[in-house]
Specification:
heterotrimer, A alpha/beta (297), B mainly alpha (289), C mainly alpha (254), A: 297 residues, alpha/beta, Rossmann fold, 6-stranded mixed sheet, 8 helices, 10 strands, 32% helix, 21% strand, B: 2 domains, 12 helices, 73% helix
């Protein structure tokens, strides 16, 4: 990802360049790390009539290389969270396949970790024990488990709060615990479902910075779902725009900024232009769609 | 994925087996759902029917002095109940129960409201309420009989002692549950006293009071039965004698009558309670004091 | 009546005043002799004291009654939690068993007393069964509620970390439902004592029931009042013990 070089050489990178959906990784294997291949999902819903089905995802396809930070934006209810859950194996798709590291995903895997919007911490465990939750299954010796949990709690800056309970700390701190818990199992793919949606705006910016800092340390592959366009542009090197349902990828946008990223890029002219472009696309998609979004198969 | 309300199932993949599909089980169990399974009444018919079959078989094997068969209960038993005037006895017991229950509510609800609104009143009364609540009222029966004899007053007192708790406790809870913010809002809009009572206090506390009445009625029924059993009078006395003389078909018929009455009244009140409080699901106070 | 609220000094004062007033009034009314059924508290206290120390039978009777209560309580808790878990987690079980449990909860359980002797006898088995019938429904209903309220998000999170069903039960469902189960167990404790005493009065009169009825039938009113008072205090002690135990279960701050 030589964004810095690109930005330096031609000054203006064509924003919104549509990336080839299945790019070959430079000098690497021909298979992308993550492939979402024509994934569809539909739900039976009483709201759509007696035999009604709502098609939420329709032939969703995209792929990622190792180490990419990808953000997915889209209108509410378009199935962004659902697609993330399919990738994690929490839900089966009606059609299509997800392959991670060339293996089809059918159930949750140890190399994929998930961060939830609602934190989902166990209220009866201390913050430290919550971080250790994912490690319980790894059959590590007790001392090593505790050491790892402590280490990851430290990386999110909550060392002094190890003995506190979730109800005693703020939402931002709880989500940091959720993040530490996911990172503690040392996954190769990190899935984040609107993780900062439930905290206030200022905390959100702090958490974004912290997330990037953690990510830059070992460059996992990350898929981050959000409805906040600015957040998506600030964090990702690639942004996928999903339309309303039945949704698929409307556009892919390469974000021209390099890492590490500073807050000031939010004020950059290119940043604003990209944000505008994405918003225009989203708005058009949301207002143009005819009301019959339910498809009968 | 929340399953409240919609029956969610993911098309394309089959759930494990016909039973699983009938039970509405999806492929993953990450949610403990009590949304109704498909074919609710099929399952109910199966399970309840199975229990009835077990009863019938046991009855056949053990004989009428041990367990009456279902037809004998429904036909002979109920027939006797109607013919021999047991129905009338039951009605009379219920009438007396209602007298006691009305008294219990007349004491319990105002007391509960007072206790809920004033900490002083609550502190002064709570030792008695709490102690009486945990004390088995049956243990007080000998004492009550000495004080009141074995007639109507005695039965009413017993019913009151059984029944006044839930109206009291629930009314107190209802008062406590009133959102202070709503009262403040009413003041900000210069709402007159009576309107506050009618449109804020009543709707807020109403469901609790009805729940208290519902639970109290159940307790009143218990009180009536035990009071009557103790002195072998009325419906309780009937049950006692029927059991003693092994007229089991009539006994179970009468028992069935009582159960049906209790369930019908309870359900009716529960429905009314939910009607008063459509913004919340479920009923209050399922055994929680 | 909230077990977790702190108690202020003012409250304790009011309690004391109220209770002291009660005993004073009792004493006065008893001495005036207006009601044959009310003897002065001093007399009653005397009877109570002698029952507790001299006669000795009181403690043996208490042990007997409590033994039955405990046996029934244990059965009620085991059965109640199991059934409650079932109806809380399985839609089929809920649909088929809930109506039965609610119907049973709404009906007077005393109804079974006249025939209990036929099926289980009037001794230990019958009395324990009566206790179970008194106590089990509260446990079922509360356990069921506790299991139902487990936040689905926690279970999904557990799935994402690949916990097995057994692990989810042990690490997510049970701790989450624990406060509800504890409440059910607390209420069941009081009901168990109540059921035991009813059994001792109505099935085969024995233990505390015998103490009570002996005093009643021989018109030893002061003694009868003393026994009634003793049972009230026993029930209160059970409730306090159960409350304390419940507080011990819920150890994390809310």
């Amino acid at each position: 990802m030589d964004d810095d070089a690109r930005a330096a050489s031609d000054g203006v990178v064509a924003p919104g360049a549509v990336a080839d959906p299945s790019p070959a990784a430079p000098g690497g294997s021909s298979q992308p790390y993550l492939e979402v291949d024509s994934v569809s999902i539909e739900f039976r819903s009483a709201a759509a009539g007696p035999a009604g089905r709502i098609s939420v995802l329709e032939e969703l396809s995209f792929s990622l290389d190792r180490g990419e930070f990808c953000c997915i934006v889209g209108p509410s209810g378009c199935g962004k969270s659902t697609s993330l859950r399919i990738i994690d194996g929490l839900e089966p798709a009606s059609g299509g396949q997800v392959r991670v590291d060339s293996q089809v995903v059918t159930a949750p895997r140890p190399d994929i970790a998930f961060v939830f919007q609602q934190f989902n911490l166990l209220p009866w465990r201390t913050l430290l024990d919550n971080v250790a939750f994912g490690l319980d299954n790894l059959r590590l010796p007790r001392a090593e488990r505790e050491e790892r949990a402590r280490r990851w709690l430290d990386t999110v800056g909550l060392t002094d709060f190890a003995g506190y309970y979730p109800s005693q700390v703020s939402g931002g701190m709880q989500q940091r615990v959720g993040l530490a818990r996911a990172l503690a199992v040392e996954p190769r793919l990190l899935l984040m479902d609107e993780p900062f949606g439930a905290v206030d705006a200022q905390t959100r910016m702090l958490l974004q910075n912290e997330l990037l800092r953690l990510w830059e340390a070992d460059q996992k592959t990350v898929i981050f779902v959000t409805h906040d366009i600015e957040e998506a542009l600030f964090l990702a090197n690639r942004v996928l725009i999903m339309g309303p349902r039945p949704s698929r990828v409307l556009r892919e946008i390469e974000v021209p900024f390099g890492y590490p990223r500073e807050d000031h890029i939010r004020g950059d002219a290119r940043f604003a232009a990209l944000k505008d472009e994405i918003w225009t696309e989203l708005k058009a998609a949301m207002t143009a769609v005819p009301p019959a979004a339910e498809a009968e198969r | 994925m929340s399953t409240a309300g919609t029956d969610v199932s993911v098309g394309g993949r089959t759930a494990g087996g016909v039973l699983g599909a009938l039970a509405g089980r999806g492929q993953r169990r990450t949610v403990l759902t009590t949304a109704a399974p498909r074919h609710v009444w099929l399952w109910r018919a199966a399970v309840w029917g199975g229990l009835l079959v077990l009863w019938q078989v046991a009855a056949w094997l053990s004989g009428p002095f041990y367990l009456p068969t279902i037809p004998s209960v429904l036909v002979d038993g109920l027939g006797t109940v109607v013919r021999d005037g047991y129905l009338l006895t039951f009605a009379q017991s219920l009438r007396q129960l209602l007298v006691g229950f009305v008294v219990a509510c007349a004491i319990g609800i105002p007391a509960g409201v007072l206790m809920g609104s004033s900490k002083v009143v609550r502190d002064l009364l709570s030792p008695y309420v709490n102690t009486l609540f945990v004390t088995p009222t049956e243990a007080l029966l000998p004492m009550i009989i000495i004080m009141f004899g074995t007639g109507l007053e005695y039965r009413v007192v017993v019913v009151v002692l059984f029944a006044f708790f839930f109206p009291l406790l629930n009314s107190a809870a209802g008062v406590a549950a009133i959102d202070r913010h709503l009262l403040e809002t009413a003041r900000a809009f210069c709402t007159p006293r009576w309107r506050v009572f009618r449109h804020i206090l009543l709707p807020a506390a109403g469901p609790y009071v009805v729940a208290g009445v519902r639970l109290g009625l159940g307790m009143a029924l218990k009180g009536m039965v035990i009071a009557e059993m103790w002195v072998t009078f009325g419906t309780g006395g009937l049950l006692k004698n029927l059991g003693a003389y092994r007229q089991l078909d009539v006994y179970f018929a009468l028992g069935l009558l009582i159960v049906v009455t209790a369930v019908v009244v309870n359900s009716a009140l529960a429905a009314y309670e939910r009607h008063l409080r459509p913004w919340q699901r479920g009923t209050i106070g399922k055994g929680a004091a | 009546m909230n077990p977790t609220k702190a108690v202020t000094t003012a409250t304790v004062i009011r309690w004391t005043v109220s209770v002291v007033l009660f005993f004073v009034v009792w004493e006065i009314v008893g001495r005036r002799g207006d009601y044959t059924a009310i003897k002065p508290f001093s007399q009653v206290a005397g009877q109570l004291w002698s029952a507790m120390t001299v006669d000795g039978g009181l403690w043996r009777a208490t042990a007997g009654t409590l033994g039955i209560a405990l046996a029934g309580y244990a059965v009620a808790v085991v059965v109640g939690v199991a059934v409650g878990y079932l109806t809380g987690s399985s839609p089929v079980a809920a649909a088929t068993l809930d109506p039965l449990v609610n119907a049973a909860y709404a009906t007077p359980v005393y109804m079974v007393i006249p025939v209990l002797g036929i099926y289980l006898g009037l001794e230990f088995a019958g009395k324990v069964f009566l206790v179970v019938v008194f106590a089990v429904f509260v446990v079922i209903i509360n356990t069921s509620a506790g299991v139902r309220q487990v936040p689905p998000g926690l279970l999904e999170m557990a799935t994402s970390f690949r916990l097995t069903r057994a692990q989810k039960l042990r690490r997510i469902i049970l701790p989450s439902a624990a406060p509800y189960i504890a409440t059910g167990m607390r209420l069941a404790a009081g009901l168990s004592v109540q059921g035991a005493i009813v059994g001792e009065l109505l099935l085969r009169v024995d233990n505390l029931g015998l103490q009570l009825l002996n005093a009643g039938s021989s018109f030893q009113i002061a003694r009868l009042l003393a026994m009634s008072f003793f049972i009230a205090m026993l029930a209160t002690a059970t409730m306090l013990l159960a409350r304390w135990a419940e507080r011990r279960v819920i150890r994390w701050p809310r």
